[in-house]
Amino acid sequence: MTENTTVHCIVDGRAYDAEDGLFLADLSTAIRQRVKRDYPKAKVTDFICGHHLLKYRLANVDAMINSDLKQSQKINRKLTRAMQSDDYEITDVNETLNKSLTFGERVADNVARFGGSWGFIGIFVFILISWMLVNGLQLFGIHFDRYPFILLNLALSCIAAIQAPIIMMSQNRSADRDRMDAENDFHVNLKSEHELRILHAKLDHLSQNQIPHTLKIEKLQIEILSEIRSELAELRADKKED
């Protein structure tokens, strides 16, 4: 379809050489659709000159740029709203627990903390050995709890009976702390997942739409510059002939 014949442009109806433009069949789908919107009766065998084709190519470039810009702005707005969203309430665990801390819970924490230390074990072992030595060897004439140390067994049983629920109270507070931490982690993970999805959508837009459009725009720009150069060369040739 590029023979050196005279054809008529579908836009202005003037006669041109076939090399001075393109037939609609040789145009890209987007540009051909733009021409058909203006000229619904146009066929693929119709011809459009380079001067008018330049207008449609520029309009196609503007449309791709505007489409990419709108999509990027839409994704950026979603990402901004997601980052500024207050739907995910993060609880300050230490502040919350300290505000609700009662005297009994404070005592329970201190008892549990001391009962799980080497200091408690050392003091307890020292008291046991001292008790057994004093009563077993009757040191200083003292033997209020003779072997098999029934009073000592009773004291140990009472201490264990009291210490167990106190430690459980402290563990309940630890369970509350773990639950709040888990809720915070869940909210943070949920928000991070939402933001990552938006970022992935933005990357997909860049890789699937914006980058290919950029390459197409560069190709069109090269074609447009070539046509402009050809027209300038023709104008200079006509000027020299005059």
Features:
242 residues, two-stranded antiparallel ribbon, 2 domains, membrane, mainly alpha, two-stranded antiparallel sheet, 5% strand
Tell me what the structure shows.
It is a single chain. The chain is mainly alpha-helical and 242 residues long. It folds into two domains: 1-67, no CATH class; 85-242, no CATH class. 73% of the residues lie in helices and 5% in strands. The chain is built from six helices and four strands; from the N terminus they run E-E-E-H-E-H-H-H-H-H. The protein has helices at 29-38, 50-84, 93-99, 103-115, 118-136, 150-241, and strands at residues 6-8, 15-17, 21-23, 47-49. Strands 1-2 form a two-stranded antiparallel ribbon. A two-stranded antiparallel ribbon has the order 3-4. A hairpin with a 6-residue loop joins strand 1 and strand 2. Helix 2 (50-84) packs antiparallel against helix 6 (150-241). The longest helix is centred in the C-terminal third of the chain and has 92 residues, at 150-241. It is rod-shaped. The model has no long low-confidence stretch (mean pLDDT 78).
